[in-house]
Automatic annotation (TrEMBL):
HAMAP family: SRP54. Pfam families: SRP54 (PF00448), SRP54_N (PF02881), SRP_SPB (PF02978). It comes from the Bacteria. Residues 269-282 form the SRP54-type proteins GTP-binding domain. This is Signal recognition particle protein. It is found in: Cytoplasm.
Length: 443
């Protein structure tokens, strides 16, 4: 699932991740592509609009544009908002205080109600230590009852059925009695579906709901149906009232629209996803992990969190101020270097980058930390005056510094040149900034 969307979003975000500075135009361009990607993935148009608006506003915000890693911040925002779109936190099954907890499965024919009932019984038993009773309340097709009975046998979960001649409401009433007698703490009702939403079905479901007062009413929808799944969810919620969604067939090549739209449109959480036909293929839905998966993020979140926890915000602001007033010295340069070093071994960080696993030979990559150490040594060998006013560092001083730091005159020269270049660049940029181009960001 999600291949197309994942590919497009990853391609788009890759362009912005590494950028040391981003402009409003960069964000706009990116969001145009994100918008296309979402529409192509069959995401509800209203959802797309809101998403693009929220992300844009956050991305163009001052704290992002002025941060040390704006590209990564933007990616983090996209991921956060994707997560929010899908409901934020994982939403667990609710159990009633009084046993048994009744769970009702509703949905269109072929969506996966019966299969998901079996899967859910497995989850209830294995993960929640429950003793469920399955109830066959689809009285319109004999095959449906048989299907549930077969699953029950396979799982050794008892199935309550009374054939096809008795009303579903009566079946449920008797099932509840049996559950009480036999100490089943969960009653799982597999109801009938229709090819399309119709009044008769809705009334029947309402009647069952009224009688059984379920703690959960799970709407089972087929992810492959995209936007239709969202409409179905809305209709079922209006007519019967649902508490959550089970999105099936996510193992297929769905474009993802349903998964990304249902929560926002219906305000009902996706609680589980079906990942195959087998009885163990039901997984709790984790919005954050799904967002990560769609964005192919690897461990980039840890990376960004690491950067955020290591970069001293006040220090960063102070540096920026110095850049602006042209009072940036070699001491500040050293400071910045040490901030980077605090984050840990550079080659380890490199491996956490998204897509790093795809770069051949990276496992052997070694960042030259020795060189960083030498830069430090050179600066340490300078006097305070030299660090503040590098212009006074003449040939004689260079020789002394090289000797003191155990490096060479060439290395001292290179560092001084780098520092000068950096100052020049900063000067150019602040010049542009004064001309009103606020979007430029300091390195
Ligand atoms: P119901 O009419 O809503 O009860 O639907 P069923 O439970 O009978 O399922 C209809 C078809 O979808 C069956 O062939 C199931 O095996 C299949 N199915 C259900 N859930 C999944 C899933 O998560 N992945 C895949 N690949 N197939 C599923
Ligand atoms: Mg069925």
């Amino acid at each position: 699932a999600f291949e197309g969307l994942a590919q497009r979003l990853q391609g788009t975000l890759q362009k912005i991740t590494g950028k040391g500075k981003i402009s409003e135009a960069d964000v706009k361009e990116m969001m145009r592509e994100v918008r296309f990607a979402l529409i192509e993935a069959d995401v509800n148009l209203k959802v797309v609009k809101t998403f693009v608006k929220t992300v844009s506003e956050r991305a163009i915000g001052q704290d992002v544009m002025k941060s040390l890693t704006p590209g990564q911040q933007v990616v983090k925002i996209v991921k956060d908002e994707l997560t929010n779109l899908m409901g934020g936190e994982q939403n667990p099954i609710q159990f009633s205080r009084k046993s048994p907890t009744v769970i009702m499965m509703v949905g269109l024919q072929g969506a996966g109600k019966t299969t998901s009932s079996g899967k859910l019984a497995t989850v209830l038993r294995k993960r929640h230590n429950k003793n469920p009773l399955l109830v066959a309340a689809d009285v319109y097709r004999p095959a449906a009852i048989q299907q549930l009975e077969t699953l029950g046998k396979q799982l050794t979960v008892p199935v309550f059925s009374l054939g096809t001649d008795i009303s579903p409401v009566e079946i449920v009433r008797q099932a509840l009695e049996k559950a009480e007698k036999e100490h089943h703490d969960v009653v799982l009702i597999d109801t009938a579906g229709r090819l399309h939403i119709d009044e008769v079905l809705m009334q029947e479901l309402k009647d069952i709901r009224e009688l059984a007062t379920p703690e959960e009413v799970f709407l089972v929808v087929d992810a492959m149906t995209g936007q239709d799944a969202v409409n179905v969810a809305q209709n079922f919620d209006d007519a019967v009232g649902i508490t959550g969604v089970i999105l099936t067939k996510l193992d297929g090549d769905t474009r993802g629209g349903a998964a990304l739209s249902i929560r926002t449109v219906t305000e009902k959480p996706i609680k589980f996803v079906g990942m195959g036909e087998k009885m163990d293929a039901l997984e709790p839905f984790h919005p954050e992990r799904m967002a990560s998966r769609i964005l192919g993020m690897g461990d980039v979140m840890s990376l960004i969190e690491k950067a955020q926890s290591n970069v001293d915000e006040d220090k960063a602001k102070e540096l920026e101020q110095k850049f602006r007033t042209q009072s940036f010295t070699l001491d500040d340069f050293l400071d910045q270097l040490q901030q980077v070093k605090k984050m840990g071994p550079l080659d380890e960080l490199l491996k956490m980058m998204p897509g790093a696993n795809k770069i051949k030979g990276l496992e052997n990559a070694k960042v030259d930390e020795g060189q960083m150490g030498r830069v430090e040594a050179v600066i340490y060998s300078m006097t305070k005056a030299e660090r503040n006013t590098p212009e006074i560092i003449n040939a004689g001083r260079r020789k002394r510094i090289a000797k003191g730091s155990g490096t060479s005159i060439q290395e001292v020269n290179r560092l001084l040149k780098q520092f000068e270049d950096m100052k020049k660049m900063v000067k150019q940029m602040s010049g542009m900034q004064q001309k009103g181009k606020k979007k430029m960001k300091m390195p």
